Fold DNA repair protein RecN.
Amino acid sequence: MLQRLTIKNYAIIEHLEVDFSGNLNVITGETGAGKSILLGALSLILGERADPGVLFDKTGKCIIEGLFKVKRSQVAAFFQQHELDLEDQLIIRREISAAGKSRAFVNDTPVNISQLSELSSYLVDLHQQFDTLDLGNSDFQREVIDALVNKPVELQQYHHIFLQYVQVQRKYKQLFDNRDSANKELDYNRFLLDELSEANFSPNEIEDLESELQTLSHAEEIKNTLNRVYFQLKEDEQPVLQQIKQLHTSLQSLAAFHKDMPGVSARLLSSYLELQDIAGEVESINDQVQYDAQRIELVNERMTLGYRLFKKHAVQTTDDLLRIKEELTRKVDNVLNLDEQLATMEREQAQLHDTLLKAATIITAQRQEQAAPFEKNVNTLLAQVGMPNARLKADIAVGELNPFGQDTIEFLFDANKSNQFAPVGKVASGGELSRLMLCIKSLVAQSVALPTLIFDEIDTGISGEAARQVGVILKDLAKAHQIICITHQPQIAGKADAHYFVYKDAKADKVTTSVRLLSKEERVNKIAQMLSGEKPTAAALENAREMLAVSI
């Protein structure tokens, strides 16, 4: 419930505060006095875009503040989601600077405009003249019927499953397309894989073969050199090893005559042992190296195959080829597994489709059950507001599954009992749409906890008894909801629990808009003026008193 609206430096409002009652609040005033400016200011704290051009004083900033009394359960999910402090009283503030910068706060915590707009949907339902266009909107029509069904949990569960269904469909299509594309490449990938598998290279094989080929190709040169080295080390007329051994013996004999001799002798012995080991290794290598023409031919063939595959796959190492082989294996296996994956997803789709169809059938039955009483109640209210010949029909056609069930809902309208029903948005006039919207919202409000309802000149195009009946509906609606209504009709103003008068006031060569709550006697006078003009007659004054007496 909106308890207080404070407006500073907005349009032609310098500063004003309005405290609203919890029931039917009516706002009246001359055309151009600024009634709709109040709603414009209110819309800013409901998330509308800000225009710096609306500042009353271009040197200051505009501040709009709304004080709401809320049920914690009503907004708890929003506050938890956005990590905001939840209190019994909710203060929403919007500030607009002369430079156009806009800031918004919820209980003094900064929020963005999208959050503000989301929060407002829990607080205020703002009905303006142009909102009647929603009546022709299929989503709005479906939401009306669903509000009367009042099974939000079932709809949420259905919607959640539908999103899963759509996601599985999307994945299935993507997988199906991938399979078609993969099948086109499968034969070629298989050929490449078979070629690499047949080659059967081991890690680093081609690089090792290059080294082996070098050895095989120079086997004779290697053996000659190794034989010479081994001969000089061990088998020459004066082998190197024998000479070093003799030198070691000579130095060792001098160990007693010089303190450095043992060290030098030990080093020479170490060299002898190292050369002896080298001689053994040279002999071993020499035994291993053999010229093998057959092996050379085999290595050349293997390397030629490797180099050809290097070039084909644009790589440079054996390990690169092995990685390509692994990738090709994965691709081929994936294609072979796609059919199985598609079959699994087909079964999942079928299960979800069956679940959705069962849930949608229940939802359809619930909607159809509400359609007839909805039509009857709307038509009764239409007669009450001066449209006795008008008829509304809620046409529910079962079709394909969609995010909200399987139904297409369309409101059809006949203004003259002609039985020629047509879509409401195409055949109803502005005044008819306005009254029809009031009738529909009054019914919906009985089924669900709508927020504060605000009606901006919903009485357009009506007067007399029809206007009185609109007032009756609003009065009845206000028993359980806060209603704020801008009106030109005295019949509606007479039903108010609180009557606010909007007027222009000239101060210091500036025209400003002000609002005041009327006393009972002031209400009599204002309603009489609405009935008969600026200077009300005695009959108009008496009529105004009767209106107020009846409403009380």
Residues 177-337 form one domain.
